[in-house]
Write a structure and sequence with these properties.
single chain; alpha/beta; seven-stranded parallel beta sheet; 16 strands; globular; binds 2'-deoxyguanosine-5'-triphosphate; binds calcium ion; binds zinc ion
Length: 582
């Protein structure tokens, strides 16, 4: 255990003792010791190894023993026993914002409350307000805290976290005391769901940056506030951490807090193999743990850290310890796609089925965005709940799209709508006949009503891939992140069938889907299956999902050449004709 981990355990012991009603001197001694350890500039391991714990002010003999046990074994019997001696629910209650050990103890002793659920019930019945030292206001605050806790205990969609975080990162960058600022953690790595948002900033006046961060408008609560770090709950219930470091530490801190943890571990080992040490404070010429400025290898940016370790710069999306370091070592990382490479979308809905906007509005919006093409792939007739089109309506829509394209051409607007469908994959056939599908520019086939049998779902998808009129399979697993599990399907077998038939796979970039998952794209690419990044737009503003999708494609190691809707229209049309001409 390092000093921060040891300090956290000591801190917790102090809280648990207070919860037990131990004498305040004893409880304070633990809190003080934790703070002392956090401020150490020398690695704790080294101090313990040299038997010099006694030299640290304010750490008596009993504490020395405990610290030694923690550093050398990673655990502490005293701590475990103490924890076991208290009802687990009391410890949970401490995580409700606004509840400290004294209040939890009072609630337990006077009302017999020993869990968050019991606490919630007592608040709702108004029993907490009557306790001395509580009152109606604090009862309401506790209830609110319980609700927050419920929200932020869970994960959040990438899109939600981005929308919450980007304006804050922007505001921090503009703050006069901030030198550099970045989003870090899973959000910078573009994970599909986010636990908490991590911000990193460098500054000469950390307290000013922390004050600014914790006093932003709309913040629901401040969970912790120290001199160089703070945690808050953002509107919507997302937790966000900010750490402030010196500018010389910024690159290594950014690498460290971007993660992933697994990627960091491999990077650290790589440094050690070169006689160096990499940690959140820097890269050092040292055989042991240190943050000694005299040993620092100058790295002004993250790029320079990778360079010093003889690696190509690894984009954050790839930092998952899935082979990126080996490939970067060979200088063979692909040049990942950028969202500005995308020229259109091949799966979208209009108000002919369950979309919001008319064909005219959609075309106008796509044109404003500078896109070249936008396929209208409304639902087919079996999706009656989504107002799916029957053959007659679809033929009428094909005609209207042709008219609209002529009008666009007449006024010199370069964007074109493509006529298409998102045809349902029914049990034994597709929802439209092949001759009708052949009249369309673009055919997406999707399994909307899957069964519980993996083999059967897989068979239906493979059969759709075998249809020469089907260009691509839509949202392959049907998952809705944080809401619905993917249906059972043998993804590997479907990818192989796509490879054999020249069928493309969609990367559906609706924020709930991000389906096919990023983890599968390397395999698809290896098999030669192309990707189409589709927003599956139901409203104009969903065009913005393209940015999310491109990030997920990057996370899947894809380049511009792997993604069909990075092609200009004429080349795309050639590709659309290819499978049909086989
Ligand atoms: P999340 O918040 O669950 O979506 O995932 P992350 O990756 O953002 O995780 P978080 O917020 O706990 O920590 C941010 C980064 O800090 C993480 O990606 C890597 C680094 N980190 C945190 N704890 C450790 C650790 O124990 N060891 C190492 N090597 N790195 C860590
Ligand atoms: Ca995080
Ligand atoms: Ca975090
Ligand atoms: Zn769909």
């Amino acid at each position: 255990m390092d000093k921060d981990q040891v300090a956290a355990v000591l801190q917790e012991i102090g809280v648990l003792l207070e919860l037990k009603g131990e004498n305040p001197f004893k409880t304070r001694a633990y809190a003080n010791a934790a703070r002392t350890l956090e401020g150490l500039t020398e690695p704790l391991e080294a101090i313990v190894a040299a038997d010099r714990l006694g030299e640290i002010k304010g750490i008596g003999e009993a504490l020395q023993q405990k610290i030694q046990e923690l550093v050398t074994t990673g655990r502490l019997k005293y701590h475990a026993d103490l924890k076991a001696s208290l009802p687990a629910g009391l410890i949970d209650m401490l995580s409700v914002s606004g509840l400290g050990p004294k209040k939890v103890k009072a609630l337990h002793e006077q009302l017999g409350i020993d869990s968050i659920d019991a606490l919630e019930a007592a608040c709702k019945e108004g029993r907490v307000a009557g306790l001395p030292g509580f009152g109606a206001k604090s009862q309401a605050k506790i209830l609110e805290g319980i609700q927050f806790r419920r929200q932020y205990a869970s994960r959040h969609l990438l899109s939600t976290a981005l929308a919450a975080a980007e304006p804050i990162a922007e505001a921090l960058r503009e703050h006069p005391a901030v030198i550099r600022c970045s989003i870090a953690g899973s959000l910078r790595r573009w994970r599909e769901t986010i636990g908490d948002v991590d911000f990193l900033a460098s500054s000469k006046i950390p307290s000013a940056v922390i004050d600014f961060f914790t006093s932003q408008e709309g913040i629901l609560s401040v969970l912790a506030k120290g001199e160089t770090k703070a945690s808050v709950i953002l509107p919507g219930g997302i937790q966000a951490d900010l750490r402030v470091v010196s500018d010389v530490e910024f690159p290594s801190a950014l690498a460290y807090f971007t993660g992933s943890k697994e990627h960091n571990i491999v990077m650290r080992q790589r440094a050690i193999q070169r006689g160096l040490r990499l940690n959140e404070y820097g890269l050092f010429r040292s055989q042991e743990e240190t943050r000694d400025p005299a040993l620092r290898v100058t790295c002004r940016t993250e790029e320079e850290i990778y360079e010093a370790l003889e690696l190509d710069f690894i984009p954050p999306e790839l930092r998952e310890d899935r082979g990126e370091i080996e490939v970067a070592e060979k200088g063979a990382l692909p040049r990942l796609i950028e969202w500005t490479d995308l020229r259109g979308s091949l799966h979208n809905h209009s108000n002919w089925s369950d979309g919001r906007h008319s064909l005219e509005d959609i075309a106008a919006h796509a044109g404003e965005l500078g896109l070249e093409y936008w396929a209208i792939t409304d639902h087919s007739k079996s999706s009656f709940q989504a107002n799916g089109l029957d053959a007659a309506r679809l033929r009428r829509q094909i005609g209207e799209i042709a008219d609209l394209n002529r009008q666009l051409e007449d006024v010199g607007n370069e964007v074109r709508l493509l006529a298409g469908t998102e045809v349902d994959i029914l049990k034994e056939r597709l929802d439209f006949d092949d001759d009708l599908l052949a009249e369309l520019d673009v055919v997406v086939a999707s399994l909307h009503v899957a069964g519980s049998d993996e083999a059967d779902n897989t068979r239906r998808l493979i059969r759709a891939a075998n249809n020469p009129q089907v260009h691509m399979l839509g949202h392959l697993t049907g998952r809705l992140l944080l809401e619905r599990e993917p249906y059972k399907v043998d993804i590997r077998a479907v990818i192989e069938a796509c490879a054999e038939t020249g069928t493309w796979l969609e990367l559906n970039c609706n924020p709930y889907r991000l389906d096919l998952d990023w983890r599968w794209w390397s395999f698809a690419k290896e098999k030669g299956v192309k990707c189409v990044i589709n927003p599956d737009a139901h409203r104009r503003e969903h065009a913005g999902f393209l940015r999310l999708g491109a990030g997920v494609a990057r996370k899947g190691w894809l380049t511009k050449a792997d993604v069909l809707n990075a092609l200009p229209l004429a080349k795309l049309q050639k590709e659309l004709a290819r499978k049909r001409s086989l």
